[in-house]
Amino acid sequence: MMTPTSRSLPTTRRPAPLHLALRRSVEAPGIARTAAAEHCERFGLDGSTCQTLLLLVSELVSNAVLHSAAPPEAIITMTVAVGDEAISVTVTDAGDGFVPGQRDPARADGGYGLYLLERAASRWGVESRGATSVWFELPLSD
């Protein structure tokens, strides 16, 4: 006689998030970019999504190094996680926050980080609660 058995449905296992702690230095953007690049395949990202991810990681970590009012010895953290529909990134520094503004087109010395973020990310934002976190999401390709 056969007894009924329960069948479990296959579950999609998401890769563990990437957590990174960075010293606030000129090397931080490159270290963050390299770490993210090493995880692109593990996260199942296509080439275009991976390249966009690396560009935005570089920009956000660079902004945290260059523009944060945090003490020089403060740590910058980065978390990259893949969900069902998007990959999300959060970069946090010990600064006291900022209000995002429009890029000044007359400015020739940069200022493209948040502009690129606005153009490339499906969603993004800034949170300031004792530290400053800038986060974004990129949709996963089918």
What does this molecule look like?
It is built from three helices and five strands; from the N terminus they run E-H-H-E-E-H-E-E. It is an alpha+beta fold. It has a single domain, classed as Histidine kinase-like ATPase, C-terminal domain (Heat Shock Protein 90, 2-Layer Sandwich), CATH 3.30.565. A five-stranded antiparallel beta sheet has the order 1-2-3-5-4, covered by helices on one side.
Please give the structural blueprint:
Elements: E1 18-23, H1 28-40, H2 47-67, E2 75-82, E3 86-93, H3 113-120, E4 123-128, E5 132-139
Antiparallel strand pairs: 1-2, 2-3, 3-5, 4-5
Helix pairs in contact: 1-2, 2-3
Q: Sheet bearing the most strands, described?
A: 5 strands, antiparallel
How many beta-strand segments? 5
| SSE pattern, N- to C-terminal | EHHEEHEE
How many angstroms does the end-to-end distance come to?
45 Å
Question: Looking across the biggest beta sheet, what order are the strands in?
Answer: 1-2-3-5-4
Overall geometry comes to globular
Structural class: alpha+beta
Q: What would CATH call the homologous superfamily? A: Histidine kinase-like ATPase, C-terminal domain
Give the second-level CATH assignment, the architecture. 2-Layer Sandwich
- Proportion of residues in β-strands: 25-35%
Poorly predicted tracts of residues: 1-11
Question: What's the helical proportion of residues?
Answer: 25-40%
Mean pLDDT: 83
CATH topology: Heat Shock Protein 90
Looking at this protein, list some descriptive labels:
alpha+beta, Heat Shock Protein 90
